[in-house]
Amino acid sequence: MTVLFIDRCRSFIAAFLLIYFCVCSAHLSHAMTFEISQADMMLMAERVFKNECSVEKNCLLEWGAGEDFLSLGLEHFIWFPDNTHGIFKDSFRSYLQYARKAGEQLPVSLDKTPFPSCLWSSRKEFLNSKTSPEYQDIVNFMTKTKHCQADYLIETTKRSLQKIIDAAPQAQRSRITKDIFQLSSNAQGLYAIIDYINFKGSGIGQDERYQGEGWGLLQVLEGMNDTSNAQEILAEFVRSAKNILNHRVFNAPNNRHEERWLQGWLRRVETYLIFQSGGQS
User: Fold this and answer.
1) Three-state secondary structure along 142-182?
2) Beta strand residue intervals within the chain, DSSP E
3) Are the beta carbons of 222 and 178 closer than 8 angstroms?
4) Cα–Cα distance measured from residue 199 to residue 77, given in angstroms and rounded to the nearest whole number
5) How far is it, in rounded angstroms, from Cα 228 to Cα 43?
6) The pairing of beta strand 77-79 with beta strand 70-72
7) Span 6-18, mean pLDDT?
8) Residue 205 pLDDT > 70, yes or no?
9) Residue 175 has what DSSP assignment?
10) What is the CA radius of gyration of the chain?
11) Coil, strand or helix at 131
């Protein structure tokens, strides 16, 4: 009888653990799968672009003052020149790979294997190139592939969210997963996630740190207070994001003078509270 009881207990525990694992796995998988209309997807991509600069064709290629890389497209993909290594990821060549697989025709200057480094070695050289065929071809390419850029934005977000959950501290993983699930359940919260990842990264890379502290989406999620109220979670996300951005500026090397960008960064995250699906904001 004792042996039978123990066997039954073991069977019950095994069944419980299996159900628990399946429920958790389904929860994580669902967090990585979200439904979004084509209209909302394009709206999000355009809002990310608006946040990066302004909705102007020339802004599809931009080399900011004080930066050592070119930014391109709706998401301002980063493209480094040869022999330039920053703390940010060179994302433009990843997009080119995606666009090529999607069947987009790349400009001759980009359609190479491997994909080239930035065609211009400095901001000055880039600004002097705006009448060149290479410049015009790349602007036209980024203009005509906006839908492809929006698709890429969604796909990279899905991958980033899974990596963020995997990298989250064990003690906070359940709560962070729940917060991601809640935020991504509607267009407004999904916009906040997508824009912040594009804006300041996932927060996973160890090279994305100042004085050991990161500023990406993972750090924002870690800094959020637990809330069961779905109406309050976006406001809590914005509060945490502002705190993380302030800490980034405080920790940044003095020669970067990042305080000049802080107010713009804070205004950007405030847009997460006013974004509305259907083209209103």
Assistant:
1) HHHCHHHHHHHHHHHHHHHHHHHHHHCCHHHHHHHHHHHHH
2) 61-62, 70-72, 77-79
3) no
4) 10
5) 28
6) antiparallel
7) 40
8) yes
9) H
10) 22
11) coil
pLDDT tens column, 64-119: 888 889 999 888 899 999 877 666 778 999 999 999 999 999 999 999 999 999 99
Interval 234-271: pLDDT, tens: 999 999 999 999 999 999 999 989 999 999 999 999 99
Residues 6+ apart with CB under 8 A from 192: 183, 234, 237, 238, 269, 272, 275
Burial class (CB in 10 A: 0-12, 13-18, 19+), 205: middle
| Amino acid identity at 256 | R
| Distance from C-alpha of 193 to C-alpha of 237, rounded to nearest angstrom | 9
